[in-house]
Amino acid sequence: RKYLASRGWQGGSLEYLDELGILGPNVISAHSQVLHEGEYDLIASRKATIALVPDMEAFLGLVEFDTRNFMDRGVPCGIGLDGCVVSYHHNLWYSARQLIQNQRMHDKHELHMHQKSANEEVFGSAELALEVATIGGARALGMDDRIGSLEVGKEADVAVLDTTRALHLSSPAALIASLVYGGGNNTEFVKHVYVSGRKIISEGDPVKVDVPTAIANAN
User: Fold this and answer.
1) At residue 10, does pLDDT exceed 80?
2) Using CA of residue 94, residue 100, residue 103, residue 108, what is the dihedral sign?
3) Tally of CB atoms within 10 A around 30
4) Whole-angstrom Cα distance, residue 46 to residue 23?
5) CB atoms within 10 A of CB 81
6) C-alpha dist (Å) from residue 134 to 79, 98, 130, 139, 159
7) Less Cβ crowding at N or C end of the chain, within 10 Å?
8) Whose CA is closest to 68, among 119, 30, 24, 117?
9) pTM (2 d.p.)
10) On the CB side of 219, how many CA atoms lie within 13 Å of its CA?
11) Which pLDDT tens digit goes with each residue over 46-78?
């Protein structure tokens, strides 16, 4: 699959890629912000997919961040993570939250700063953010038949979170909202993680990994 860093594409360049036969279902377009209206339709018609990077866009102050235009057109959107020297974060929960926050900032910016027509309906929910972070990413990768949700026949990728010691001060019925907007990015909540049914995190610690040594080497 081809991977295009499309942030900052100028008018006409998407049409040029389309003329070259590059823009199609085998393309995952990274960032994909500051596009013209017709370019959203072009991406949708060519069945390309999107890797959104909301945490980096937030650090850069990009109030033009827009995923609503993709989702309204049925374009598969997942969440990507950028380099630590840019976004200082590699936390999927944080990025899922930023997806909702960034879109709402964008909508208000369009409505009040540029006096443009904008949808005043509050965008999204914690449930939508979780969907984009899981099955949405699988769809964007073209792998939703294998991963992205807990279903019979799919790979057993499971994260077990223990929130019994978490003080959320919210109803248990608001579990997803509490995780996405508040507690999910607390690594201390992570109890077990399985990838393809193989346990890689046990009782909060990586299996067969010397964590201090790995961190020291990475730093």
Assistant:
1) no
2) negative
3) 16
4) 6
5) 17
6) 9, 15, 6, 9, 11
7) C
8) 119
9) 0.85
10) 6
11) 999 999 999 888 888 888 899 999 999 999 999
* Overall residue count recorded for the chain in this entry: 219
Beta strands across the sheet bearing 190-195: 158-161, 190-195, 198-202, 205-206
Helix (H) or strand (E) holding 77: strand 77-79
Reported as half-sphere exposure (CB side, CA atoms, 13 A), residue 167 has a value of: 0
Residue 110 CA to residue 7 CA, distance in Å, equals: 19
Tokens of 133: 């972070």
DSSP string, 4-48: EE-TTPPTTHHHHHHHTT--STTEEEES--S--HHHHHHHHHTT-
**CA–CA separation, 153 and 147 (whole Å):** 9
Read off the tokens for 75: 């374009």
- From residue 68, give the alpha-carbon distance in Å to each of 4, 49, 122, 124: 20, 14, 11, 9
What are all long-range contacts of 7-12, with beta carbons under 8 Å and residues at least 24 apart?
Answer: 7/31, 7/32, 7/33, 7/34, 8/33, 8/34, 9/34, 9/35, 9/39, 11/36, 11/39
**What amino acid is encoded at 102 in this protein?**
N
pLDDT band at 5 (very low <50, low <70, confident <90, very high): very low
Place of tokens 């991977």: 3
Tokens of residue 14, six digits: 């998407």
Mean pLDDT over each residue of the chain, to the nearest integer: 86
